[in-house]
Amino acid sequence: MSDAEQPTDDHVPGDDEFEPIQVFPQAEDMDLRPGADNCYKCSTCDTNCPVAEVDDEFPGPKFQGPEQWRLKRQDDHDIDDSVMKCSNCMRCDSACPSEVPLSQMHNTARGEYVDEQMSTISREYLRNRMLANYRKLAPLAATFPRTANFVMGLSATKWMGEKLLGITSEREFPDFATETFREWWTKRGGAQVESEEKRIAYFHGCYSNYNTPEVAKALVRVYEHFGYEIMVPEQSCSGTPMFANGMLDDARRAAETNVRELGAAIADGADIVASCSSCSMSLRQEYPELFDFAGTETVAENTWDAVEFLRVHEDLEGALEGTSVEDSNFAYHAPCHSRNQGLDGQTIEIMDRIDGVEAEDVGDSCSGISGTYGWKAEKYETSMKIGEEMFDHMEDADAETGLTECPTCSMQMEHGTGYEITHTLEVLEDALVGARSE
Amino acid sequence: MAIEDDVLVIGGGIAGATAALAAAERDARVRLVTYKQSTLRHASGLIDILGYTPAGDGPLIDPFDALEDLPEGHPYERVGAETVRDALSFFDDVAGDAYAGEHTDANALVPTHGGTVKPTARYPASTAAGLASDPRDALLVGFETLPDFEAPLAAAHLEAAGAPFETRGVTLSFPGIVRDDAKVTRYAHLLDQDETVETAAGTTTAREALAERVRSQLDDEPRVGFPAVLGDERADEVRADLADAIGVDVFEVPMGPPSLPGMRLEDLLYDALEAAGVAVTSGVPVIDYETNGDADRIDRVVVDRHGAEIPHRADQYVLATGGLVGKGVRSERDRVFEPIFDCHVSHAEDRYDWFVDDVFGDQPYARFGLAPDRELRPLDATDDPEFANLRAAGAVLGGYDFAAEKSGAGVSLATGYAAGRRAGEECGD
Amino acid sequence: MAHDTEVLVLGGGSTGCGIARDLAMRGLEVTLVERGNLTDGTTGRMHGLLHSGGRYAVSDQASATECIEENEVLREIAGHCVEMTGGLFVQRPEDPDDYFREKLEGCRECNIPARVLSGREAREVEPYLAKDVKRAIEVPDGAVDPFRLCVANAIDAENHGARIETHAEVVDLLRDGDDIYGVKVRHDSGPGKRTHGASGTTEEITADYVVNATGAWAGQIGAMANLDVEVRPSKGVMTIMNVRQVDTVINRCRPKGDADIVVPHETTAILGTTDEEVDDPDDYPEEEWEVDHMIDTLSELVPILQEARTIRSFWGVRPLYEPPGTGTDDPTDITRDFFLLDHDERDGVAGMSSIVGGKFTTYRMMAEQISDHVCDKLGVTASCATAEEPLPGSENISVLEDGMDDFGLRSPIARRSKQRLGSRAADVLDTDAANPVICQCEGVTRAEIQDAISQSGSDLNAVRIRTRASMGNCQGGFCCQNMANELHPEYDEPTVRAALDELFQERWKGERHALWGEQLSQAMLNYALHATTMNRDNDPASAADPIGYEAFDGGRTRTEPRTDGGQ
């Protein structure tokens, strides 16, 4: 080493394609220290963190993000283990007055922690991996939905889940639908409207495929009502649960599939719409922040929340004037991932247009479940403490039905209050197309 | 299609919220678009009107007396003293019992967490029992895990500041807080939910445990001050419970960022916006605007939603995006600018003329912002309005040093109120 | 007449503290006086480069050889002050090939380990290097914290019986005919550890021998005895970035020039520098163009610097010296070597030598040679041990990281604390008391602040240089107040207030030079926090006239107070 060596590659400037910053070999190779430049320590992020509010073991997003990154040197690989307490609600992102890439820092740190510091044979790792890859298990359950629902509901199964895997026994596993959305879609023969000008590709995500196909069907009927041709491209999990568990390799594989398939749909003239707020969040924000394969930006720029898209491209509010629905008193919870997309006020504004509908916003607190977070035995209590404010407001609300756009928020709302929960698209379907025929 | 409203307010701090409320009062259909959370969370929650004149005289007993003498271009001079009063009563109506001080024109002197006192016109109910211009003795309680507030030092400082009463400070541990780096929201939540906590004496509730610790320290003082962490959603209840359990008046000393009194004020304003039917779109920036033939009029603004550009159209616009901290005014090495409409910001060419060497001297940078006409329309370099239907309010305006004058909230209220009212009136025309 | 001390060292920079330690370890009685704080002069105003010698490998091979020798010594004796970052001499396409070759050969000739990297390899090491860099020479440059190193020397000198007196300005040399036998100092505010509030007193300190180690100020000391010390102070700017864009020292590989080095320093990166002769080391212009020049020129090597956040800039004055008659015009051509001026031999004035020139990396070697000289003068035979004995904090440094738990701290805070405290970490951090973080930017806890206060008293700038508290991105906006709080109740309220004002003003002094973009927003927030929220700009405790409280709103509670108070 001490002797001078001749250069191994006499570099000629200009012909170098190597761009280390842009390449994405592993998320943990990303140097996010420059992101700390934007922080001026105001701690607004901390005041928005639902976890730090109920658990002082979690030191808050400012510490996890800009502070931890700024204290880092290239060779330091000790991420504080408290990063696993972050629920990835991403509220800190829209809180920060100074555009610190907080959730990107958290996601990257979490990925690094899981890769470098978490044993791959630990119970926590196995459990997280399983929760993160819910999609892998779902098809099996969906093949035998009744058996799966029965088995999942058994107290012995829950006991096993808690003891062996650290999945809380307090929650009811979601029921699997007897017919998935994709099965229904194939059976009905796919799109029933064809249009060159008005075309969308639907990113249904896992949950509305396997568990709540009625939400997906509502989207189809509402969009067909407005004359859209609907494509249902091949798709994988959006990655949300994988980011939240630091499983960045899994997320990357899923994202590659999605970007490829959705990119092709965009090339066919479609915009992408999603009915789940976490799915749209993931495609819009997390993909471009964490991945860099071709087309990521294009997919992000052309992805919409399903209601937002209609609001901007159609006269949705005009169409809703004079309509009415069966259930009319809603307690609405805006999911954190809607909030991050600037959509938290949208549902109430839309509902106001439907005759007789009273939709009450139950406040800006987090539901607390944050995807897989609230399913973990050791996080369950935190999850319920976070949710307390929302539960209280829901109980105070003068409403019959809960309303939200996020499947896991919906589980938490039901779990904490006993309300029946519906999705905004289902209400729109009722208003615009009428109560479902089947 | 664009999302359409009569009045579009950009910015969600005191100025923006007040503008939206004032416009809604004129029956306009109003939307408030706010990108990030406002600087209210940095601020103490006090409503200062004017504590010192621009020349540094003060503390002023009556802020309204001094309004007439402000230099030309000062935001208060632009809107006029009467509007300042109107705006403050408008705020009093919105705030109701949550704020005090409306019984007099005189400023109150409020103890700060640095141990000094500052003049202010309106103060949160939680601060009301703690005024330094109230001659009752006080016990200040700090917590060993909240290093921002050193109660014994603050007490000594208040004495040095000539406060007309005896002050004593003690430092305690906060029952139920486990880690030394718990966030202030954790303290507040613990008290809000009155969580169960373990103390040496056994299991009890957070409020009772805290009261018990303080009770043992009390020495006939009729009031006890805490750093401002006494609850968030249920702050009034927390304070009342503590007062009952300790047996004396309880008050909060306003703190620096992140500030619970600031958060509570934000909640109050957003509740009012909801009640007034103002549509609020948050978390997304306005990145651009378009004129429609007539270059003097903004036709629509463009909101960026993760790459998707959503047009928002209104008849009237209010710009309330904040100053250097709120990023409504930005700077580079050789320029200071307003990023959305590129409204003119007057500043010295050489950035070494943006500051003076004494940190608390007459800092030019503190006055950066837009210069408006008397209708609060930002003026271009030749003193013509940039746009016929754009008004500006709050810290995005220049020509005053809110930090030195203690006029931040007051200017935001007065200009927000004036801009919103005017926008609401004009859109009907 | 017996003197107060055997040796009196003037100047509390690296040279002075190094001499004090060396002589004290040899068993001599030593007193050191410093006008301000330790490191207040040039030591505290350098870029923190631990030279490999590579920089001098072409122009000054004697210095280069000394550098690599001392580089290796400091890694051993001051491990907790040194970070072996490695360094690169990076060649851009427009930089001369000849010079690159000369640099490489020079390194070999001076036994500096050197290896050539291709542009691609260099960018693998430092991804933020410009895409078109041509190639680089890798050398064992490092980063050193001059504050901690200097303070560690002073502490060890004290441990060996020395008296270290800060805030004691030399106002006169005591002279009896042609013999200097001491100095008169003015204490800034009382003797001993600094305690504010006492009015300035003077003290005469007599000594068998005086060493003038005041660097750029050596000429001023000399003038007190009509001695001509031809020091030629030369100023240089250093601009501090908020984060480390690079983790390796990046040098521009071209013949001498300004703005050619980026040093990763603790949590920051420091850009340097300029070289301009000044008349007075205490009064010279700090100019905008110098800062702009750093950013614009170094962006050619590391483009992200153009957009990155700068948190402050500072200037230092090099204590350059050249023997009379050399006649160099350009300060960059003046040698970096050091000179020992024995005023007895040179001027016929006994009892004092002056030490001028030199550079930080070789401070220990300089101190050794001067100490040898002093011993010689005093007829003492004792040998130097400073190259072998580790400084306090660096004993058994290699086993530290693994052997210590985290003291209940979050891992990055524990890591940074341990990096700063070295082997003292357990002593300082192991506490049962609440230990919240006081400075969040730099991850400094109460225990570390208290430890610094116990060393340095109520001078918060002295606390700052020991801990780095208030040296992060908010530049003390959020923590100055909290640092001051830590002084109470040991120090009374007026002392605390004065200490806070002094620290806050000092932070502003450097931050002024970074007032655009994020740092201007930060400055406005800091100003608002201190002026609006705390009203520190109009603190009635510091005002001339008392406030008439009774004229202000006393609140409604004044008329209907609670009556069961305290029951």
Structure, explained:
The complex is a heterotrimer of chains A (438), B (429) and C (567). Chain A is α/β, with parallel strands linked by helices and 438 residues long. Chain A has 23 helices and eight strands. In chain A, the strands form two sheets. In chain A, strands 2-1-3-4 form a four-stranded parallel sheet, sandwiched between helices. Chain A is globular, with a radius of gyration of 23 Å. The N terminus of chain A is likely disordered. Chain B has eleven helices and 21 strands. A five-stranded parallel sheet of chain B has the order 14-3-2-18-21, with helices on one face. Chain C has 17 helices and 22 strands. The interface between B and C is large, with 93 and 70 residues.
Question: Which chain pair has the greatest contact?
Answer: B-C, 93 and 70 residues
Distance between the termini of chain A: 76 Å
Helix content of chain C: 25-40%
Sheet-strand content of chain C, in percent, reads: 15-25%
Low-confidence stretches of chain C: 561-567
How are the secondary structure elements laid out?
The complex is a heterotrimer of chains A (438), B (429) and C (567).
Chain A: H1 44-47, H2 50-54, H3 61-70, H4 91-95, H5 102-117, H6 123-132, H7 134-143, H8 145-153, H9 155-165, H10 181-187, E1 199-203, H11 205-210, H12 213-225, E2 229-231, H13 240-244, H14 248-267, E3 271-274, H15 277-290, H16 296-301, E4 303-305, H17 306-313, H18 316-320, E5 329-332, H19 336-339, H20 346-351, E6 358-361, H21 380-396, E7 401-404, H22 407-417, E8 420-423, H23 424-432
Parallel strand pairs in A: 1-2, 1-3, 3-4, 5-6, 5-7, 7-8
Chain B: E1 3-4, E2 7-10, H1 14-25, E3 30-34, H2 63-67, H3 75-79, H4 81-95, E4 99-100, E5 108-111, E6 117-120, E7 123-124, E8 138-143, H5 151-160, E9 167-172, H6 184-192, E10 196-199, E11 202-205, H7 206-215, E12 223-227, H8 235-246, E13 249-253, H9 260-275, E14 279-282, E15 286-292, E16 294-305, E17 308-313, E18 316-319, E19 330-332, E20 335-337, E21 390-392, H10 402-405, H11 408-426
Parallel strand pairs in B: 1-17, 2-3, 2-18, 3-14, 8-9, 8-12, 12-13, 18-21
Antiparallel strand pairs in B: 4-7, 5-6, 10-11, 15-16, 16-17, 19-20
Helix pairs in contact in B: 1-9, 1-11, 4-11, 7-8
Chain C: E1 5-10, H1 14-25, E2 30-33, E3 49-50, H2 61-77, E4 82-83, E5 87-91, H3 97-109, E6 115-118, H4 119-125, E7 135-139, E8 142-144, H5 146-159, E9 163-165, E10 168-176, E11 179-187, E12 202-212, H6 218-223, E13 231-241, E14 249-252, E15 261-265, E16 268-272, E17 276-277, H7 288-298, E18 310-321, E19 338-342, H8 343-347, E20 352-357, H9 363-378, H10 400-403, H11 411-421, H12 425-429, E21 437-439, E22 444-445, H13 446-456, H14 460-467, H15 480-485, H16 493-511, H17 517-533
Parallel strand pairs in C: 1-2, 1-12, 2-9, 5-14, 12-20
Antiparallel strand pairs in C: 3-8, 4-8, 5-7, 6-7, 10-11, 11-12, 13-16, 13-17, 13-18, 14-15, 15-16, 19-20, 21-22
